[in-house]
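Notes from hallway chat w/ T.B., transcribed later so I don't forget. T.B. wanted the structure written out for a chain they're using in a teaching module, and asked if we could keep both sequence and structure tokens in one place. Agreed to drop them here.
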Amino acid sequence: MAKNEKVVLAYSGGLDTSVILPWLKETYGYDVIAFAAELGQGDELSGIKKKALASGAVKCVVKDLRREFVEEYLWRLLKAGAVYENGYLLGTSIARPLIAKYQVDVAHAEKATGVAHGATGKGNDQVRFELTYMALDPTLKIIAPWKDPKFTLTSREAAVDYARKHKIPIDQSKKKIYSRDRNLWHISHEGADLEDPANEPKDNLFVISNPVAKTPNKPEYVTIGFHEGVPVKLDGRLTSGVKLVETLNAIGGKHAVGQVDIVENRLVGMKSRGVYETPGGTILMAAHSALETLTLERETMHYKQQVALKYAELVYYGLWFSPLREALDAFIDATQRNVTGEVRLKLFKGRCTPAGVKSPHSLYQMNLASFKMGAEYDQTDAKGFIRLFGLPTRVAGAVNRKAREID
């Protein structure tokens, strides 16, 4: 290793990266540049530069990426309708490639030879970070301490001891606590009592939303306005993407919207249990889906549902910077040309339900949908259609009946 070799560490200020930073310096002599991304994690970045420098960083770069996160990542996720395994709205998954992208940019600007992360060898994040590094600059050295045989700080207790010994400022104790990840889209909770799927999440677990038992006894309505699949208005007013998500988080959180408790299949092969709070994202997904029911014709809608499953897998697996994701975006953008209109939603006791949808491009024709027959629909046409559509079934039925008679 060259003297004073620089590496850029994805730095959150949490326990893991707080001890990894000085460990990299102590073990390998790296000059560590800490990189922190502002993605809407509340006050978690308060004093982070001071903390990074006190932990041994030669420099700390903090970049506000909230707008890019919403407009270039979350809106693509929303337009795709991507949900992993029927519940996870991909809040952590979608953020990692953006963080890693700017890590690579900082490495180039600082003439660093490597990039580092604090993801464990059991999780998905290691894949998301490293695939992004490989896609954007395969010449950079990838440093993953959790997979380094020399790294022994593989428990929270050991990390706390190391931090105290080296006088690293931390806010953790040895008491078993939840592992959390937060950004504009969601907050996740893992570990502690949640590791047993038989345990119900406790009411004090929730951070950005109320427990259902403490929600208002009166429903609240919101109206989301879309233009070509992108939400642009809240209750009739033009609203920036960041502000819209923040506001919906507050409103949805009040009504316990977007709380999901799932056991999911990790990319690395194991099952894991997580509890997620995604109030604003849940409202937006419900609104977007409702608007598509009016504006997408049948075959496009059905095919897009298949694409949504693949898109969710690509995001979950860390393949954001892949040719397939870019190709799917082209298809998805084409489907969104007429996804313009307004959706009214009712929020009540943890539920978010459409309460009215309208669009200037609506394919819903009341005269066709009505039970009353009119000149625009000749019901006798259905007779020939059904006979032709059912021809394979009729032939198979006749053959099977003949076979049974022979037996």
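Follow-up for T.B.: The two ends are 80 Å apart (CA to CA). Might be a good example for the class.
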